[in-house]
Amino acid sequence: MLFEDRADAGRQLASRLENFAHRPNVMVLGVPRGGVTVAFEVAAALHAPLDVFLSRKLGVPGQAELAFGAISVGDGRYLDEEIVRTAGISHKQIERVTAEVRLELDRRAKLYRGDRPPLQVAGKTVILVDDGIATGASVYAAIQALRQMKPFALVLAVPLAPPSTAAWLRRFVDEVVCLDLPDPFYAVGAFYRNFAQVEDAEVIDLLRRAEQVGEHPSGPDAVNPGSGAAAPSGEHGSEGGDARARVAKSPRGMGARG
User: Residue 256's pLDDT is what?
Assistant: First the structure.
């Protein structure tokens, strides 16, 4: 399955989430940066508020692209003990990398959310959205942190993920909605025609626009980035199928990918 861009993926993903539309207790959280573009489309289609939830992988010293874990806002942290052991990462190195990454995470949180009040998800149905998942390390950290905030339900919604990663993450959420489970899986960007990097300014703009629409609702046509008009539901496509409720519950290690 090939998506034109993140907005296209978001519109197709929204078509699989229609049962969450117009519910007062639903909240959509995008994982910056690319996940926010997808989440914007989902929130617009569901008429739900949009916010961000930040998580970031912890890179092995000297091999930053290789993740040995991840952290999220608050105190959420996940460590892949197998990678830590294999790479010989010391406790001191773990704490140093964690501190460095948390500084960047805090910077982005302030940049994106500004003076918004702290995120409140208790008792809400939270739909966590990213533009795709590879190893799942960062998303796992976000899931664990969100669980501590006691949502009513937690739904993970992504355009694509490897079958093994989706199956592993399914154990930690109430529902997984995934349009495509490609196997073999190479990289998230390989399944997009346009996978240009999303800049901080775009994330901030999407959050601002979503907030304005929430204050002055005028239908989904008001919040579609690009053309300013939402695609008709018949244009969402269906070749990827709906992976929710069909993701097998099987254990999985984090592996050695970034």
Answer: 32
User: Sign of the CA dihedral 17, 23, 25, 29?
Assistant: positive
List the structure tokens of 30.
Answer: 């995008």
Residue 216 has pLDDT above 80, yes or no: no
* 75 inside domain: no
3 state DSSP class of 209:
helix
CA atoms within 13 A on the CB side of 198: 21
**Dist. CA 76–CA 149, nearest whole Å:** 11
Kindly state whether residue 65 falls inside one of the protein's structural domains: no
Tell me if 151 sits within 8 A of 123, measured CB to CB.
Answer: yes
DSSP tag of 149: T
Q: What does the DSSP 8-state code read for residue 232?
A: P
Residue 228's Cβ-side half-sphere holds a number of Cα atoms within 13 Å equal to: 0
Query: What is the pTM assigned to this prediction?
Result: 0.77
Checking DSSP bridges between strand 153-160 and strand 125-129, what pairing results, if any? parallel
Provide the residue range defining the domain that includes 31.
6-50+118-235
Find how far residue 249's CA is from the centre of its chain: 20
- Residue 46 counted as domain residue: yes
**Residue at token pair 């899931």:** 143
Report how far residue 10's alpha carbon sits from residue 3's, in angstroms, rounded to the nearest whole number: 10
Nearest in space to 19 (alpha carbons), one of 153, 131, 130, 140: 153
146-171 in b/e burial notation, b at 16+ Cβ within 10 A? beebebeebbbbbbbbbbbbbbbbbe
* pLDDT surpasses 80 at 228: no
Q: What is the DSSP string of 4-43?
A: SSHHHHHHHHHHT-GGGTT-TTEEEEE-TTHHHHHHHHHH
Strands, sheet with 55-60, edge to edge from the N-terminal-most edge strand: 55-60, 63-72, 77-79
Q: How far is CA 20 from the centre of its chain?
A: 17
